[in-house]
Predict the 3D structure of the following.
Amino acid sequence: MSHSISTTCTGCTACVNICPVKAITGERKSLHIIDTDICIDCGACGRICPFQAVEDQNGTTCRAIKRAIWSKPVITEDKCISCGVCLEICPTGALDFDEPHAHQVHAIAYLKEPVNCIGCSFCEEACPVVAIAMAEPVPA
């Protein structure tokens, strides 16, 4: 089951612009539709929609959250084993491997493109060694 868009959609296109797999279509100022065959249930559309027109897979209306406070992955260096699962699962390519430093045996995953991160937590869920935790960004 995937997310869906209700009739309260105003066609603002915020969801279209954030969807990492281009599962959402529709004309500006018209009802948008999520292609359930493409949707990966990342939830970004629900977090970005200012009109609360997105429902999750359980039929619950999603609430808009300011993008500046979306959770981001935090990687614990001494737990990361450089398996690459997080890089493969990330739908936006926001993660990468850092070059190993003097005290490290291998490269460590890190959030290379924070602006591209949609806070889906797929990386956290997929990490086989629990080296990733989602956390709200620290205010500057």
Helices lie at 14-18, 44-48, 85-89, 122-126.
